[in-house]
Design goal:
Chain lengths: 108, 124
Amino acid sequence: EIVLTQSPGTLSLSPGERATLSCRASQSVSSTYLAWYQQKPGQAPRLLIYGPSSRATGIPDRFSGSGSGTDFTLTISRLEPEDFAMYYCQHYDTSSLTFGGGTKVEIK
Amino acid sequence: QLQLQESGPGLVKPSETLSLTCTVSGGPISSNSYFWGWIRQPPGKGLEWIGNIYYTGTTYYNPSLESRVTISIDTSKNQFSLKLSSVTAADTAVYYCGRRTYYYETGGYYFDYWGQGTLVTVSS
């Protein structure tokens, strides 16, 4: 079973700053099946990035994804007030699906 | 606009079976481009995948829950359902249903629509 480890657990930044979130897989995975979701309190997750660098519909271009093998990154180039939230990476294969533990991006 | 709505009891007693239904509106549940899935989130914790179902009835379950989980689909009602047996307090969570769509440009499936979630508490 693939384990996804996200770091840091919490990222304290100010609006306008750059956020870099990491997702590390316990073994090499296909980047096609890697995605990132944003979740705000009391809301369902929202698809941000998939495959691992394509933006979902309506996602602004300040969000970008990259990576391959075991290391993947979500970057928010300039944080807007609405970007402070939880972020989860997710991977699937033919029979299972796994979420990382999440990174909270909070206002410093 | 596609909408998914979870429904079912908000309180279940320990050792009983949790039953939830997801009603899909605004689009067909019978399509070879979609999987339909259940995900849960214990209060203050992260997301856990429970399982997926294809419109043909083919299912995939989280190995850690497989012995207790059954997901079924009713295409005539545009609904799919979750049953989780022998529940304990550890099964208390917000339960989400979602649609996994096939994205041709990458060749992968991703959750692009989610229900609002329903809190299920396991308590006597």
